[in-house]
Input
Amino acid sequence: MIKTILAQVKEFKRASILTPLCMLGEVIMEMIIPLLMASIIDDGVSAGNVDHIKYVGGWMLLMAVVSLTLGLLSARFGAQASAGLAKNLRQAMFEKIQTYSFSNIDKFSTASLITRLTTDVTNVQNSYMMILRMCTRAPASMIVAMALSFVISPKLASVYLVAVIVLGFLLFFIMSRAVKYFKQVFQKYDDMNASVQENITGIRVVKAYVREEHETNKFHKASYNIYKMFLSAEKILSWNMPLMNATIYTCILLISWLGANMIVGSTLTTGELMNLLTYCMNILMSLMMLSMIFVMVTMSSASAERICQVINEEPDLKNPEHPVMDLADGSVEFRHVDFAYRKGTGKPVLRDVNLSIRSGETIGVIGGTGSAKTSLVSLISRLYDVTAGQVLVGGRDVREYDMEALRNQVSVVLQKNVLFSGTILDNLRWGDENATLEDCQRACRLACADEFIQRLPDGYDTYIEQGGTNVSGGQRQRLCIARALLKKPKILILDDSTSAVDTATDARIRQAFAQEIPETTKFIIAQRVASVAGADRILVLDDGVVSGFDTHENLLANNEIYRDVYESQTSGNGDFDEGSDD
Output
């Protein structure tokens, strides 16, 4: 874990080294100042030597300026190093997430990934700053002060030593009790972020069903759980300060009493006693500082572990050693394909699928909710790998291709249509970043999107809000289809992506595909029989098994499931399984 985190320091190594060095210099200056003060009292004030006071006072002023300068430099370098580490950690996690397959992403919830990119990274950043600065300052200050105290008076310094041992034991006991709460709190952060994300994403549904109070109560519960965790930890940590103060005051009283007796017996000077009292505060405050560092490091260790889980997660899908970069054509073949989302566990969602599809064919896919329509087409662009069997595209196993090359030739319009904040042109150019305005207009005409874009005040420069909330569901679907067409793919997959458009527009889109992209293999997943009736062949799936694969006419004659769907829709009972979330 430590190796993974420190690997992200990268270009901030210099700042990470200079921070503790400057802090060490500051500690040394601070430790010398009490010695100079003792000299002023014993050799200046007591002896009435004004010149000595001025001389040593000048050195004290110089030490103070140097100490201040080193402290400022340490703070600057520490901030640079810790902020740089946080930047690199976020970058490393985000880049790694981009390499994940869907199965990798399924291991982490969206809310959990957001927490790791934000709260967890901030905890590690704060902890790294404390380690570089306070973890250097506290031990160095305590060791140097203790050593100088023994040089001045071993007898009085023994009081410090006993106090440090007793206080250290008590603080360790307190910290160990508080640690368990800090280790549990981040799961509660995930729950709270999940509540917020779900609420904001579905805010229209929340308001439509007047569930604001329910959502508020759910968030309150998640927030209250975090409050309880921190409150339990803080109740334990609240003992730190009373114990610290009690130890400090006891030490001061003992040193003052013993020191006074030694001054009377001429075995200790007044300046040395003041010096010892200063070192007493330094030693005990350093110990308190170490206890707080322990708390911060304990909190951040849980965060660091969660960050490392993301960075060290190995993508399930990888390119072969010598990947194929070009697809010969858009032919697709399934050979005895089984597929389960979790290999080795549970029932496969696809079982013994055998299909052979020629390049340029239009294939309709129909089936009830949970029949694995989406799962089937996800294997073509290798969003998942098969559990058993083979999926061939262009005559080669999809596992032989470079994944980027394969996916550039397989355009998928998913069930959940996603647009990003930016103009319509910005969103369209996700399909081809070098597409001209004319290219975008042609794709939009094929997707029947050009007609509504022209009615917008700013046309293709119209700004799309995050998630495409300022366009209708049907408009969003047509823009996503146009975006997919701009890739000029050999295979086009429309996963129930015309469900929000009217039947007339749906028919025009299908007609445009037949005329304009005849060589592209087209998979059309739909709930309406009318959307697939004109396909070259239609695939009927039933609970992950191929129930039928033939033309519309032959399926009507020979496939009971397809015939039932057709009759239920043509008899006026509505679309079959409309709104499926398969």
